[in-house]
Amino acid sequence: MRTFVHHLGNHTWEGVPILKYKEEPGTHFKQITRQVLSDCSPDFKTQLRYFEIAPGGYSTLERHQHVHQVLIGRGSGHCLVGGQVHPLAMHDTVIIPPLTWHQFRATGSDPLGFYCIVNCDRDRPQLPSAEDLKALAPSARDFIRI
Amino acid sequence: MRTFVHHLGNHTWEGVPILKYKEEPGTHFKQITRQVLSDCSPDFKTQLRYFEIAPGGYSTLERHQHVHQVLIGRGSGHCLVGGQVHPLAMHDTVIIPPLTWHQFRATGSDPLGFYCIVNCDRDRPQLPSAEDLKALAPSARDFIRI
After folding, report:
1. Helix %, strand %, coil % of chain A (to 5)
2. Whether A44 and B67 lie within 8 Å, measured CB to CB
3. pLDDT above 70 for A27
4. pLDDT score for B52
5. Which domains does chain A have, with CATH numbers?
6. A116 is catalytic
7. Beta carbons of A51 and A114 less than 8 angstroms apart
8. What is the ipTM of this complex?
9. How big is the A-B interface in CB pairs under 8 Å?
10. How far is it, in rounded angstroms, from Cα B117 to Cα A47?
11. What single DSSP character describes residue A141?
12. If we measure between CA atoms, which residue out of A137, A96, A139, A127 comes closest to residue A26?
C-alpha cells in the first residue's frame, strides 16, 4: 500500500502514470486523462482517481449500479446527472446515484479536473440505447455528447 | 442521498454544517472543524469529510484498524504516519495504513484543510498509552502534540 503520494505540480503526482481514459478504436473525441491515486487492497476497498478533461472534452454518457462521488479539483464545467444539468466549479461535489445517466463536460476554456471516489468492487458501466436517449429530458438531450 | 453539494466559497458548502471536532471537556487545544460532504447509505458506504485545522492546531494522535485516505485541499502542514513525519502541500495525498499512529498538524501560518475518505463502517480510534508513546521514534516524539 502506497502511503504518501506527493503532488509534483499541475495536477500530476510522483510515481503516478497519466493514463488515457477509454481510448478505444471508434471512440469519439473525449480528451480525458486518468491518474490513480490509491491502490485497492483488502484493507481499503475504495479508490481515489483524478480525471482531467481538456476544454471541449467530455466523459462517456453512462450509468451503473455503483455510486461514485466526484469532487471538482480544477477549472469548471457542467455535468448531467439524471435529467438535470449542473454547473460545476472548484470544490463542488456530486454524488451519482445508482443507475443514473451522467456525463461531465469541460464547457469552459479551462480543463475540468475532478477527483472520483469509487468502490473497488463495482459493476461495469452501461451505455445508452437509442430508447434510453429518447427517454432523456429535452435539456439533457441538448447537453449530451455521444 | 444528496446528489449535489455546492461550494459556497472559503471551503464551506451549501447545507453543510461546520462542526467542531472532538471538543470534549479536558481536550487540549486542537482547533479543528469538520464538514461532512456525503451521507452514508446502503448504496455508498464511503464518506467524504472536509477537516480544517487552524494554524498551530492538530488532530488527535490516534490509530485504528480502518484505513483512510487524506487529500490536502488548502494550505500546508505536516503529518506523522507511523514513524515518519511528512511535509504536506496542496493536492498531496496520504493513505493511513491499519493500526498506524498518525497526527496532522497545521505547522504553517495558514490553516491546513484536507478531505478525508473513509468507510462508513469503521472501528473507533485508539489513543496512545504511555508505553506506546515511549515506543515512538525520537523524531515522532518531537513532532507529536498530546
Report:
1. 10, 40, 50
2. yes
3. no
4. 96
5. 7-143 (2.60.120.10)
6. yes
7. yes
8. 0.92
9. 115
10. 9
11. H
12. A127
The DSSP output letter for A53 is E
* Contact between chains at B115 and A71 (C-beta distance less than 8 A): yes
C-alpha cell at A93: 461535489
For residue A31, give the C-alpha cell.
Answer: 480528451
CB contact at 8 A, B50 and B74: no
pTM: 0.94
Instruction: Tell me which residue of B90, B38, B34 sits closest to B60, measured CA to CA.
Output: B34
DSSP track, chain B: ---EE-EEETTEETT---EESS--TTPPP--EEEEE-S--BTTB-EEEEEEEE-TT-BPPPBB-SS-EEEEEEES-EEEEETTEEEEE-TT-EEEE-TT--EEEE--SSS-EEEEEEEESS-PPPBPPPHHHHHHS-HHHHHH---
Shortest distance between the Cα of A92 and any Cα of chain B, in A, equals: 5
pLDDT tens-digit map of B52-90: 999 999 999 999 999 999 999 999 999 999 989 999 999
Residue with cell 510522483: A14
Q: Are A112 and A74 in contact (CB under 8 A)?
A: yes
What is the pLDDT at residue A29?
55
Check CB contact of B92 with chain A, cutoff 8 Å.
Answer: yes
Contact A46 B69 (CB under 8 A): yes
Using CB atoms, which residue from A71, A81, A86 is nearest to B48? A71
Instruction: Look up residue B115 and give its three cell numbers.
Output: 478531505
**Cβ pair B91:A13 closer than 8 A:** yes
3-state secondary structure of A134: helix
A142 touching B (Cβ < 8 Å): no
- Provide the shortest C-alpha distance from residue B5 to chain A (in Å): 5
Give SS3 for A49. strand
